[in-house]
Amino acid sequence: MVFARVSGILVAVAVLAFLQLSVGSTAVPLFGGDDHARAVLWELRAPRVLVGLCAGACLGLAGTLLQAAVRNPLASPEITGVGSGAVLGAVAASVSGFTQPLAVAFAALLGGVVGGGVLWVVAGRSGDVAVRGVIVSAVLVGTTLVLLTARPQLAGAVSRWLLGSLVGRTWEHVAPLWPVVVLVVVVGTLLGGVLDVLAVDDDHAHGVGLAVVPWRSTVLVLAAVATSASVAAIGATAFVGLLAPHLARWLVGPVHRVAVPVSALAGAGTVAAADAVGQLVHVPAGAITAVIGSGVLIAVARRTGG
């Protein structure tokens, strides 16, 4: 049954990627076109599709890791400070003149780790991650907006990081992104047993001999790496990190050794679908995921009492 469902989501992601490849401002045939059509597909649409798939996979992975590490089904990059910290880092790098993809990615990673660390310190052992995460994220978003006032001429370009958009993504953005997906999928899957234990409670973890703080810190850093890579590539694509883990658990259950790679597929498919729809209605993919994700957030909060 699990194999059939994983195969089904693989097919679904492939179909959504194909749909994303087929839409755009210019109608071109996917097969048998002239040189112009092949250039549009290979130079413009193919890297956009691959960046979206990789960035969505990163967000799905980050959400699954965060929800296990902090034991909260509402946890996702945008409400744990990791996503907003990564956006702040990316914007700070751009404002400072460091616009190369690797420089932006490193700054986003630094910002994501700092954002997650601030929440870790503020939340402490209270367990009130959701509310305090929203507060920390609000402070980081406010800091980002203040930073933009120093270079208002960059506001238009930087809006991509605030909205989440795949416009203008090239092969240059694919190159540093796919290794992160492979790294986080492999390490996250290998840590599946640790995630299963962390997701229960600290007493259970201590009871089975798991060093909670080092392993939780490792998982949080891994989530920050995945989030930062995505933010550096396409900006803050809201709530993919919330949607994908719930979809993965609904499909294959809570065992993380399976749920981790499936959450990557779910995130990839979510961004592909959002970008395809976004191109049809002329809005960024992040706006689509924000509308759908906010509804899921409310539903999960009502179900869990969060």
TrEMBL record:
Cell division recorded as keyword: no
One Pfam family here: FecCD
Gene Ontology MF annotations: transmembrane transporter activity
Membrane topology value: Multi-pass membrane protein
Family that this chain belongs to: Belongs to the binding-protein-dependent transport system permease family. FecCD subfamily.
Chief site of localization: membrane
InterPro entries, per the entry: ABC_BtuC-like (IPR037294), ABC_transptr_permease_BtuC (IPR000522)
Lineage top rank: taxon: Bacteria
Keyword field contains Translocase: no
Record GO biological process: siderophore-iron import into cell
SUPFAM superfamilies: ABC transporter involved in vitamin B12 uptake, BtuC
Keyword terms, alphabetized: Cell membrane, Membrane, Transmembrane, Transmembrane helix, Transport
GO cellular component term, pick one: plasma membrane
The protein's name: Iron complex transport system permease protein
Subcellular location: Cell membrane
Residues that span the membrane, as ranges: 48-70, 102-123, 129-150, 177-199, 219-243, 280-301
